[in-house]
Amino acid sequence: MDLAIPVILVIVKVLLVIFVVLTFVAYTTLLERRVLGWFQVRLGPNRVGPWGLLQPLADGAKLLLKEEVTVTAANRWIYLVAPLIVVTCALTPFAVIPFAKDLYLDRIFDQAASKFVLNTGVISDLNVGILFVFAVSSLGTYGVLLGGWSSNNKYSLLGGVRAGAQMISYELALSLSVIGVLLLAGTLSLTQIVEAQDSVWKWYVFRQPLGFILFLIAGSAEIGRTPFDLVECENELVAGYQTEYSAMKFGLFYLGEYAHLLFLSALMTTLYFGGWQGPFFPPIVWFLIKTFFFAFVFIWIRATYPRLRYDRVMAFGWKVLLPVGLFNVMVTAFVYTLWLQYRG
Amino acid sequence: MEQIFFYILGAITLVSAFLVVSLRRPIQNVLFMILMMVGLAGLFILLHAEFVAMVQLVVYAGAIMVLFLFVIMLLNLDQLKMPPPEGSHVRWWAGAVIAFAVMGLIWLAFKMYLAPEVPPVEQAGASNTVVVGKALFTTYLLPFEIASVLLLAAIVGSVLLARSRS
To answer: What is the number of structural domains in chain A?
Structure first.
């Protein structure tokens, strides 16, 4: 009994977070289509519900009701599992993102509730939080690779290989850009990183400007968005690794993609913009404002830049981002050590 | 609780390790190898070695196995039929005997050189990463540097190989 109640409460919390994240993911797709519409001086989807607000529901129903096509030449099991890997690896890292300071449970219930770890605004405050994020998202590569390979289609295979190569190349630059923040914060726990940025001047974006730019570029390549969306470059590869997927299996890839986008925005908020910290509003509001701002920035970038050429993307990742990332780590470590010496 | 997790993870690791060597299709072998790595990472977490667990996932499951998969996918090795298992199971038995002998040796070494019954403990007040980092840069600095020079040599060597081909 002592164990059962906290376990059930934690499961409830996890389900709640997943539900909220999935809802936001659905509305990010709407946001993307509406905002792209405005950028391109057209309306975007506005027929379903007021301002098109019910569009995600309609899309979901459409994807669920469509006929499932399983390619006969496909490698059946791997073909079915690949979208699941993508979605799982896109949703799992949300477990370590601190989305609020606490959940006000101690004000609603008595002290008993806050005794559990439950009252924190994060599912699990791992002391290797950021490593966990990179570990899980590096596993996400398999979903894309296997999906492309198992479809038994040239375009899918090429799309999958491109996506895999791009993801592992840019993951290096992404990890390197974060090391600067980790050096300054002296911890891998995302909660402690947020707590260290308790005033605007302590936000790591001001102390790690180069690291932040690297993170933004490598991040948008990691999730395969314009200008790095060679993965599903329509005029070369049809739809890349998703070509042979239909109905809800395609829906899962789509979901994974937008969950990844939202996750990256949340991670950027947490690492560089003080997470839930901010005046006046409650923490969760600040967190959502910042996260959706970055989701908007990614959409903005998509509406602005054309697609790069594949060989240039790879060359840029390995020959520009990686050295600049190493340079950033070295300068940060050097300056930080000097500052520690100076301070005594 | 911890024991249940240990048995589940141990079963995952062992079964997938067995499937890696017994299945006949390269793609299946690679996939079960990844599963084995994930199981191993879980076992590391049970030992309070979170840092090692995450590095296991990032480096082995996330990076090295992706390269294996790339080679199989690009060369289409899966179409290649592996030779059927031989009639006599000499190789199997030789492998099994050697595996058990090695395991026995390791067990003996543990029995002789490790103090018994010291359960792994979480270092109070210091995170796993800090402990590992401090050990690497103080006590084990020389081995650490030697390992990095070795890796550098490997990088230079692979660049050289890739260059001479073109």
So the answer is: 1
Cβ distance of B127 and A127 shorter than 8 Å: yes
Measure CB to CB from residue A188 to each of B34, B41, B127 and give the nearest one: B127
In a domain, B117, yes or no: no
Assess whether pLDDT exceeds 90 at residue B149.
Answer: yes
Q: Closest CB to A141: pick one of B27, B54, B66.
A: B66
Would you call A145 and B128 a contact, using CB atoms and an 8 Å cutoff?
no
How far apart are the CA of B45 and the nearest CA of chain A, in angstroms?
A: 11
Gyration radius of chain A's alpha carbons? 21
First and final C-alpha spacing in chain A: 52
CA dihedral A90, A91, A93, A98 (to 10 degrees): 130
- Per-residue pLDDT tens over the stretch A256-280: 888 889 999 999 998 888 878 878 8
The answer to whether position A234 is within a domain reads yes
Q: Tokens 């054309």 map to which residue?
A: A306
- Matching residue, tokens 């840029």: A316
pLDDT at A10: 79
**B34 vs A contacts (CB less than 8 Å):** 142
CA-to-CA distance for A258 and A225, rounded, in angstroms? 10
Query: Which residues from chain B sit within 8 angstroms of residue A189, using beta carbons?
Result: 127
Asked whether the beta carbons of A103 and A282 are under 8 A apart, the reply is no
pLDDT at A109: 62
**Is the Cβ–Cβ distance between A163 and A224 less than 8 Å?**
yes
Residues of B in contact with A141 (CB under 8 A): 62, 66
pLDDT over 60 (residue A115): no
Cβ contact A128–B50 (<8 Å): yes
Cα torsion angle, A18, A303, A85, B34, sign: negative
pLDDT at residue B26, rounded to an integer: 82
Q: Within a domain: residue B91?
A: no
Residue A63 lies in a domain: no
Residue B20 covered by a domain: yes
Residue B100 lies inside a defined structural domain of this protein: no
Expressed as residue numbers, the domain containing A115 is 4-52+98-122+154-242+256-343
Q: Which of B31, B62, B128 sits opposite A135 (nearest CB)?
A: B62
Which residues in chain B have their CB less than 8 angstroms from residue A76's CB?
Answer: none
Q: Name the interface residues of B facing A (CB cutoff 8 Å).
A: 27, 31, 34, 38, 41, 50-51, 53-55, 57-58, 61-63, 66, 69-70, 73-74, 127-129
Number of domains in chain B: 1
State yes or no: ipTM above 0.85: no
